[in-house]
Predict the structure.
Amino acid sequence: MILQTQQLQGGYGASQVLFGVDLSIQSGQVVTVLGRNGMGKSTLLKTVLGLLPIRGGEVHFDGQKINGWTPDKIARAGIAIVPEGRHCFPNLTVKEHLTAFAAQRNPNSAYTWSPEKVFEFFPRLLERQHNMGNQLS
């Protein structure tokens, strides 16, 4: 199991948004979290990333409990999100974006990414690797 939440609880201020979320993601698996606005998708991500405190339950990554880790430590361990919208650097090419963020953050992890590996998953990006970030839809 690469990422697992058990009975995860979280929210904002006095408002609880997550009520016992169980999630298990295997290595190599692609998972999508779907739901209408206000259902807790962003709250789930922010809680796993350490941007919101865990109110209950546990988060495990690569076999380690990461409750209480700071967001920068979680990122260095290898957890990251791809933001929606146009949150990119307009003056970098697609390949430069992938290269800049493909750094091996955790030298003990067996999971590495490179632009070439991303191009295998998303072949249309290979065709657009020289496009600037602001040229993508």
